[in-house]
Amino acid sequence: MPELPEVAALADFLRARASGRTVARVEVGSIAALKTYDPPVDALAGGEVTDVARHGKWLDVVVSPAAGSPAAGSPAGSTGPDGAPLHLVFHLSRGGWVRWSDELSTKPVRPSLGGSGRGAVLALRVRLDDGSGFDLTEAGTRKRLAVHVVRDPAEIEMIASLGVEPLSPEFTTEVLAGLLSAKNQQVKGLLRDQRAIAGIGNAYSDEILHASRFSPYKLTRSFTAEETARLHTAIGEVLAEAIAAASGKPAKELKDAKRAGMRVHGRTGLPCPGWDGTPCGDTVHEVSFADRSMQYCPTCQTGGKPLADRRMSKLLR
């Protein structure tokens, strides 16, 4: 799943290529992916792309509507004053991706219910006036790609409830301390909670905890002031490093760049590079859950003690 660094890079990538271009047509491939009906996707046609923004893990293509289209703030189907932007907002979830083309196929997209196979499904195609544009695709059996056309991103409950942006000036050590003390839970869960901190998911929470030398199971109310400051520093440094690594890369290279930059996530059984870049002599361990796994280093994070893997424990009984 793309997280804050990749989504930020995708926003930059799309902004550089689509801004100033006119939307020629939007074609829906997967009806199941489209979560809204008012305004209709057709309202984007003829509008100019003025920006591409990010909200946590959500991408937001801002389109100024064309004259005569249903205006933002007006009832569906009515005509109002032009100028208020519409927002094509989407969450790529686990299997979604953005595929840019300088010259899209002229073959019309055929709508479907979304499909249930593992192969990639074309969910949405945005055609621009110069023949370029992008597809939203989704692979895997569980289709969770979510596409919205709204007048205000805050209309989407999951965006309205997002927590603090971890690279914003508002995310201070004191704010993090408040989040840690608000509820006594495992720190891994807090880092992944989008209502607390926006944009960090399974992969970068592993990386942050490794860099700060904390067990993913450490309880949040056990953090001292020094430990809170160390975690805060690691959040900023890990995300900033990942953003720098992703910056300027085309969309098709971002997944490989993310994997290449990981120190523990997705590296089960490989040597741990050490939290400070000095190999510690241990290997990366894994704990598996029903729909995900997490990776960590016992030497760097848990005092040399492997964490129980409940799935493996059941298999060994």
Distinctive features:
4-stranded antiparallel β-sheet; FPG_cat; alpha+beta; single chain; zinc-finger; elongated; 317 residues; 9 helices; Fpg/Nei family DNA glycosylase
What does this structure look like?
By secondary structure, this protein is of the alpha+beta class. It folds into two domains: about 160 residues, Alpha-Beta Barrel (N-terminal domain of MutM-like DNA repair proteins); about 140 residues, Helicase, Ruva Protein, domain 3 (Orthogonal Bundle), CATH 1.10.8. The chain has nine helices and ten strands. The strands form three sheets. A four-stranded antiparallel sheet has the order 1-6-7-5, with helices on one face. Strands 2-3-4-8 form a four-stranded antiparallel sheet, covered by helices on one side. The protein has a two-stranded antiparallel ribbon with strand order 9-10. α1 packs parallel to α6, α3 packs across α6 and α5 packs across α6. The longest helix is centred in the last third of the chain and has 22 residues.
